[in-house]
Amino acid sequence: MTKAALKVHQIGPAAAFQDLGRPGYIASGLTRGGAIDTLAVHEGAALLKQSPDCAVLEIAGVGGVFEATAPLRIALTGADMTAKIDDAPAAWNAAHQMEAGQRLTIGAARSGSYAYLHVGGGFDAPVRMGARGGHMSAGLGKLIAKGDTLPLLPDIGTRTGYFLPRDARFDGGTVRIVPSVQTNRFPPEERARFEATAFKRDPRANRQGIRMEHEGEGFAAEGMRTIVSEVIVQGDIQITGDGTPFVLMCESQTTGGYPRIGTVIPADLPRMAQTPAGGKITFQFITLDEAVAIQQKDAKTRAGLAAQAQPLVRDIHDISDLLSYQLVSGAISAQADPFE
Amino acid sequence: MSSTYPTIHTVGLSGVLVTFADALDDTANRAALAFRAAVDAEGWDWVHESATSLISAFFRTDLAEYPADRITGQLNDLLATRDWFAAPLPEGRKLWHIPAVFGGDLAPQLDEAAEAAGLSPQDAIAELTSTRMRVITIGFAPGQPYLGTLGEHWNIPRLGTLSPNIPRGALVAAVRQLCLFSNNTPTGWRHVGQTAFRTFRPTSDTPFPLSPGDELLFHATTPEDYKTIAANNNDGAGGATWEALS
C-alpha cells in the first residue's frame, strides 16, 4: 500500500514542519524551537485523538493548496484562515476527512498569525537530532515549496467531524510576565511605565522574536552597557540599545547581552505568538506564586482538551434538540437603531 | 569579588540561574563550569537540562512543577560544600588542534587587529598560535564557541561598522576573546583567521564537537593547504585533531 501524502500545489512563503521542539541543546547554543503556538499543537492532537508529538505544518500568513493522495484525516488549528475542501467550506479548529484527489485550500489569516495543519498519524518529516521540527536559523529543516509531497505516517485513528471552541488569544490583550534576572536593573518607575504602556506588535516579528512598538520614550536599565551576556529563555523581553522591547520566542539565540525587563509566562506565549501585526498588547507583572498557579491550571486545560471536543453539526436534521437552541442570538432587536 | 556572589535567581518559570560574578571573570567562569558538572552529577529529578554562560550556570526546569524554594535550598546546600572559585575544571575535556590561515584574502582583518593590539602581523600570529584558548561558553549560534583569554593588549574594541558577511569557520577577535563562527554572519569582530572547522554538524552523531572547558590551539597553515582541507571536508573536521585533557 502506498503511503498517504499531501501534494503541495501552492504554498505561502513561510510554511514548515514543526513539533514540540528539540530540548536539551541550550549548552550547545541551540534553542528548543518547535511550534511557536504549542497550544495549537495540543488542540490538533485532541481533535484527531493522537499524540501531541506528531509533526504538524506551521503556516505563517497565508496557506496553500494541498491534494490528498489517499483518504486521510486533517485538523486545522491556530490562526483562523479561510479553508475549503474542494468547494465546501471547512470549519476552522476542527477535524475533517479528505478523500483521495480532494484538494484542501487554505487562504489568508482572518485573525492570529500562525495556523497549523495536522494530519492523522502526523507528517513523516525527517528526524534530525531527535525531532522533526524545523529550526531555520540553525539550518535544520526547510520551508515547504510548491511541488513538494508531504508524506504521512500510518494513521491508527478514525475520528473526524469534531471541533474545539476557540479561545481569545488571537487579537492581543494582556500578557502576564514575571520578574527575571535583570528586572531589578530597571528602576520601579520604569517598570511601572512599562506596565502602563499600550504596545503594538510590530510587523517585524518572526519565530526568533517579536518587536513591540509604542509611543513615547524607550525603556532603559541602569548599567545597560556593562551587562554580561546571559542565558535566554523563551518569553524573555529584552530591551535593545534604543529602548525597544523584543519578546524572544522559540527560535531565538541562546544567550544575549541586552537586559531583560521580565519574562512572559509560558501560558501566555500562545497569545504573544498569535497577536497579529498591529495587535495591541499590554504587559502585567505578576508574582512567581501567581504564575505557578496559572501554569498549573493551564497544564490541566491542555490535558483536558480531548474531552472538550464536540461533534460538528453539518445537517439540521441531525440536531435532535433543535428547539433548545437559541437561534436568534445576536440578532438586531426591533428597537435598536441599526445605523448606530 | 563581591561577597554577595554566588546568587540564585529564577529565570521566568523555566529555570534557575546561579551567577558567580557581576563582570566577566575567569575564576567565575571556572566556578560555573565546575558547579554545573557537580549539579549534573547529583542527578536531581528537577534538572531537565543544564548549561553555562560566561559567569553563570543555568538549570532548566518547570517551576510550576518543582517549587523554587526546594530547588534553591538544594543549590545552596551544594554551593556551601566547597570553594567553587578554586574548583578544578571538569573532567572529560579535550585539547583541539585546528589548522587556520591567518591574514591574506582569507582573513583580511589580521593586520588591523595586530595594529590595534600593538603587534606586528608576525607577532600577532605567533601569539594566536601559541595561546591555548579555552571555550568559556557556547552560544548565540549552534555550537559557536567564545574563547578566552588573550593578553591585555588584545582588549581591542568591536568595530563601529559591522562587516556585512564574515564566513562560517572564521576566527574573529575582540575584547581579549576569539570566536569561531558557526554560520556566515555580520559582525563587529575582526576576521583574523579562517578555518574549515564546522562547529555544528547536524547530520553527525556528535553534532556539537566542542564543549565548554575544551581548549583550542590554532596551527598556522598555508592558503593552499587550507583549500585542500576545505575541499575534502565531508565530516566538517577541517583537518582538526584532538587529545584528551586530564
From TrEMBL, chain A:
Q: Which InterPro entries match?
A: CT_A_B, Cyclophilin-like_dom_sf, PxpC
| Any Pfam family | CT_A_B
Which Gene3D superfamilies does UniProt cross-reference here? Cyclophilin-like (2.40.100.10)
Carboxyltransferase domain segment(s): 27-301
Q: Under which name does UniProt file this protein?
A: Biotin-dependent carboxyltransferase family protein
Keywords in alphabetical order, please: ATP-binding, Hydrolase, Nucleotide-binding
Which PANTHER family does this chain map to? 5-OXOPROLINASE SUBUNIT C
Which species does this protein come from? Pseudosulfitobacter koreensis
From TrEMBL, chain B:
- Organism field: Pseudosulfitobacter koreensis
Keyword Signal assigned to the entry: answer is no
Q: Which UniProt keywords apply?
A: ATP-binding, Hydrolase, Nucleotide-binding
- What's the protein name? Allophanate hydrolase subunit 1
Q: Indicate the segments forming the Carboxyltransferase domain, all copies.
A: 6-210
Source species, domain of life: Bacteria
GO molecular function terms attached to this record: hydrolase activity
Report any Pfam family annotated for this entry: CT_C_D
